[in-house]
Structure formats: C-alpha cells, structure tokens
Amino acid sequence: MRLFRFGDPAGERPGAIDGGGVARDISSILGDLAGEALSPASLAALKTIDLTRFPAVDDAVRRGPCVTGVSNFIAVGLNYAGHAAETGARLPTEPVLFNKAPSCIVGPNDDLRLPRGSSKTDWEVELAVIIGKHASYIAEADAHTVIAGYCVCNDVSERSFQLERGGQWTKGKGCPTFGPLGPWLVTPDEIEDVQNLTLWLDVNGQRMQSDSTASMVFGVHYLVSYISQFMALQPGDVIATGTPPGVALGMKSPRYLTAGDVVSLGIERLGTQRQRVIAE
C-alpha cells in the first residue's frame, strides 16, 4: 500500500494509491498519517478497503510529507562505505546516530531554503524508515514488526554548520526544509527486499549519487533494533538510514547548492522528489 498526504502546509489530508495507480482522498475514514493510524492493525484494516470508492486527488495538488506528528527524527551517519571513504572518515564499528529537528520536515517537492549564513549546503538521498509501533529493546529478528513503511528522504546538510561550528552534527542537519519526506509511505509488503533497492540523486540533471541499499554497512532491521536499545521508538518516528557516496563534501572541488539549483532524487519502488533551491 502506498499512502500519502496532500494539500496546503499544515492542512494536509491523508490519501492512498488504489490498485490502478489513482491517488484517492481517504480523509473521510482516516484522520491523518500519524500515531496509531500507522499501527499494524490500522494498516491491515486499510488494506481491506475498496479505495476506488473514494474521491480522486489531482496530481497537480501539492504533496505533503508522507507522515506527520513526528516526535523523533533520527539519522544514521557514514552507513555506506563509499560515503565514509569520500569524507575521509573511518568506517564505523557501530552505527553513528544523530538527530534532525522534526521541524525541518517538508513535502517531497517543496522548495529547499538555504539557511542564513549558509555556504556549504549539501544533498543526501536516503531510505527512511517510518515506525508504526512502540519499540524498546527490540530484537533484530522482530524489528520488521514495528515498521509501518519506508519513504524517500533527502537528508539536506549544511556542512559548515555541521563540521566547522563546534559541537554536534545536529547544527547542520535540522534547518527548515532540510527533511523532505515522501512522496509516499510504502508499506513493507510492497517491498520484496528492502536491502536491494536502487537509490539516486541528480543536481541540475547531473547524476551525483547512484547506489543500492545493499551497500549499507548496517541493515535496516539491525538499525531499528540498535536504536531501540538507546531510546523508545514511537509511532511516526523516522529513521534516515544513511547516504551513499556522491555528496558535494566528498568532491575534490566541492560544488555546494546555490539558489536556482534543482535537486531530483528517488528510490526504487518508493517514488521521486524534486526540490528547487531558494535563498532564505
């Protein structure tokens, strides 16, 4: 099942893609894609409904982030060997974790705003995991039971804030618009193997990143289990699982984002995003 949210910011409604690929408005039966609506029982009930009886949603209508009410936006650093190498970092022996501010979450095609003082804003295509059930100290073998779905994430990063201003990476990760999510929340039954999905990112039509989730250092289920050892995961929490090589930071002569650039990205079976870069 592919679920989405549509409408103006702060007024989005939930939708679903029917078997024929038509976007449908399901707000008459579901409040929003948040909290208990993401639980296994709720999603199982949605799958039994004939979606064709709901109103169609025009493709021209804005798509919002595919989940809302996010209490914790966790990200994993250096989770592809090629990305660690291009940044000169050692391959981690345990997952590197940091947080993105939930306030940075926007729709998949919303403008990407360069923050004030920005000089090194960078791109990162990532597979994101959306949690659907409370999880604390969960075993890796059981991690699949708490995953509501997956989506595309652009873990936008301001490298000068992240690496040159002292303290933790969080400074360069949570600026407004730095967390586009969507276009869809895709439930796990739609994904044959989450560790075998192609992901890519272009800047102004030039391919910058191209890889597969098979290249992850730590797999999705391991990450969910690992993170749950340090915090209680809640329905709606988002985990961005790391980016492959090809970011500006890794270039010999980095070319960071500037106003007017267009970033396009996608993941196999999870859809695509497109952001226009604008100045704050």
Give me the secondary-structure topology:
Blueprint: E1 2-6, E2 13-17, E3 23-25, H1 40-47, E4 63-64, E5 73-77, H2 81-86, E6 96-100, E7 105-106, E8 112-114, E9 121-122, E10 125-131, E11 147-154, E12 157-158, H3 159-164, E13 179-180, E14 185-186, E15 198-203, E16 206-212, H4 220-228, E17 238-240, E18 262-267, E19 271-279
Parallel strand pairs: 5-17, 7-13, 8-19
Antiparallel strand pairs: 1-2, 1-4, 1-14, 2-3, 5-6, 9-12, 10-11, 10-17, 15-16, 15-18, 18-19
Give your account of this protein's structure.
The protein has 280 residues and is mostly beta strands. It has a single domain, classed as Fumarylacetoacetase-like, C-terminal domain (Fumarylacetoacetate hydrolase, domain 2, Alpha-Beta Complex). The protein is 10% helix and 30% strand. It has helices at residues 40-47, 81-86, 159-164, 220-228, and strands at 2-6, 13-17, 23-25, 63-64, 73-77, 96-100, 105-106, 112-114, 121-122, 125-131, 147-154, 157-158, 179-180, 185-186, 198-203, 206-212, 238-240, 262-267, 271-279. Strands 1, 2, 3, 4 and 14 form a five-stranded antiparallel sheet that branches. A five-stranded mixed sheet has the order 6-5-17-10-11, covered by helices on one side.
